[in-house]
Amino acid sequence: MWERSHSSERECSVDNPTIKEIARRAGVSKSTVSRIISGNGYSSQEARDKVHGLIEELQYKPNAVARAMVSQRTHNIGLLLYRRDHPIASHPFYGKIVDAVMLESAKLNYSIFVTTDHDMSYRSADFMIEKRVDGLILISRLQQNVIDHITNFGIPFVMVNGSTDVDGVIHIVNHDEEGGRMVAEHLTQTGHKRIFVIAGPQSHRSHHLRLKGFMTYITQTGIQESDAAIHSASTSTFEEGYEIMGCQWKPFIEDGYTALFATNDMLAMGAMKFLMEKSVRIPEQVSVIGFDDVDFATMFAPSLTTVKVDTGEMGTQAVRLLDQLIRQEPNIAQPKQLIPRLIIRQSTK
The domain 176-308: what is its CATH number? Predict the structure, then answer.
């Protein structure tokens, strides 16, 4: 006759340990175990030592749902990239920020939800809120009503490469005005007085400040604004730079411009492509300078002189500051603007 085997509750629990099993063994309540695991609330040193010892002995790993119930946190971060024009996630500037965010998030044990929003609407923010993320990283320019919408939910967030007038919002931005000044200083000190400018969308903070810094320095040196022709771009793409240069090709040659500045690298390289198709020698006949230092800038021939924006540091700072907000650390300082660097390559002389 077969004898039925009876596995004890204790034996089953060892294979799949629970908070209840740890509490029973430690001689404390389940709520005490929960407080010790989450790090919130009072518990004696003796209880903490017992619970931590049992967690290690039983190799207890709370699942994500249990952790969220105990700590009221999901350890998820939402990353929203707002951009009207394609590409979005694969953009050579924003893609590097996203990479840095994901790398630093992993170090701090956060999982990431990433979404892009072409319409710059509430939709993506609501998606993240439904996922019960602990905080949000908002990249690029946002409409004020979207910022207000997110603020109303009380979810911590930081902004990268964008800004708002809302008090207390943390912004991680490049010192774009200083970068524009660096461009103007480099071109004027190398003897250029007739400068052709392709300015990206002025509704975007970065393009606006880059042009502002450039023009402020130019006018201070005594160069007339008419000697720095500004052509506005509706987008900041390679194709737009190529098309603007094509439309302005005749006056560009007739007016004797010796330098070209575009407020991002993609516009600059698009313009360079058109110039080279017209057999213009760069930099012998025309010096070209961009802004951002995307990877393509070194691959282009000639390689592009540009202003380097530390996108990796922007992404890293975003995660670290958001983590401080999530953990409600006191006196979190507004980060200083990141200072760019002029990178001189083959496209200027």
Answer: 3.40.50.2300
